[in-house]
Write a structure and sequence with these properties.
By secondary structure, the chain is α/β, with parallel strands linked by helices. The chain has 15 helices and 14 strands. Helix content is 38%, strand content 19%. Helix 1 packs across helix 3. The protein binds adenosine monophosphate (AMP). Adenosine monophosphate (AMP) binds next to helix 10 and helix 12.
Length: 401
Amino acid sequence: MKIFVVNSGSSSLKYQLLDMDSGVVMTTGLVERIGDAMGKVSQKSWPGTEREAEVEREVAFPDHRAAMHTVVELVTGADTGVIASSAEIDAIGHRVVQGGETLFKSTLIDDDVVEKIRENCHLSPLHNPANLVGIEVARELFAGVPQVAVFDTEFHQTMPAEAFMYPIPYELYEELKIRRYGFHGTSHRYVAQQAAAMLGKAEDDVNLVTLHLGNGCSMAAVRGGKCIDTSMGLTPLAGVMMGTRSGDIDPAILPFLMKEKGLSMDEVDSILNKQSGLKGICGMNDMRDIHAAAEKGDKKAALAVDMFVYRIKKYIGAYYAVTGPLDALVFTAGIGENDEIVRARVCANLEHLGISIDPARNAGRKKVATAVQADGSKVAILVIPTNEELAIAKATLSVLK
Ligand code: AMP
């Protein structure tokens, strides 16, 4: 069974071809700068498959259709690909960011599902339209191949109303579906399942706090294997501090800024999404650069790390209060997997909560799932590399079954 996973962004298209029988990733690729004067496609066929090849090409991609055409050519090309024709693809799994309240489970795509994804575009105007383009082009190019939509919001659908409702007039929820949806769900679910396996427990028997810390950051409270709360909200702007996004702030800052600086709503939105977070405090959003600057005495860089860590700690406390006895903290994504400083500082001084990290086990980047808690720590501390493509492929497979 070969599954092709598509993650279509506004100007990019990420893809993977996975052989689900052997568990091998056959091909992984990325098209960048779709719509620009010049774009780029890079593809790697994974070692272990019959033919191995690496391709990198500068090509202009006027739109997603052109990008997908090139991807099909590369994946099936005699010199570049690992399959002879697209007929070898059994199913396609699409990442869709926002399922809203109408699409709460991975689902086989038909015209009705496409329409519902379109209807949810207003809830995720940056992502859903781009996801839709990927779906529409793939349905055209792979006519007859079953296609499945897997939603970022899916894992969070188990949140109770007390967690997903906002304390604003109820009619706004009824009319506009304003509520907490949460994102990165595929990643949170994947690491929660991996954590259960590492702990030797059933998936529905683990209490966890999962920390997806990448350029975008979110946390989830997991009780009995189900998500009961998450830090992102109606949009991916809420929650902990991120690379360029503010996370939680006093909502009254928005009208205050508009009034005091004469800014438009779009300008304020752009400040909070693109010029805030780590970047807003110290001018940089890559944690590696920030650590390096802080080490050289850059006070703003040090403050940015202090704030980043402090805000995560507060969420751990909040979620610990609602998960019940905690089995593990689970770190994942770019910072979670690779940054021993952030992991150590997040876990520091939490011994009173039964959380104690081992400096030697925590040291270094983690390419494989690793337990880093100290002996005697009541709560396990796990670093688990996320694999959203594999999770999408597995979800696709289970829908087809
Ligand atoms: P992601 O969005 O999951 O791809 O994560 C991207 C972020 O991970 C980057 O912006 C960096 O801040 C961070 N990152 C990646 N590698 C490292 C590393 N070795 N040390 C610290 N942070 C890292």
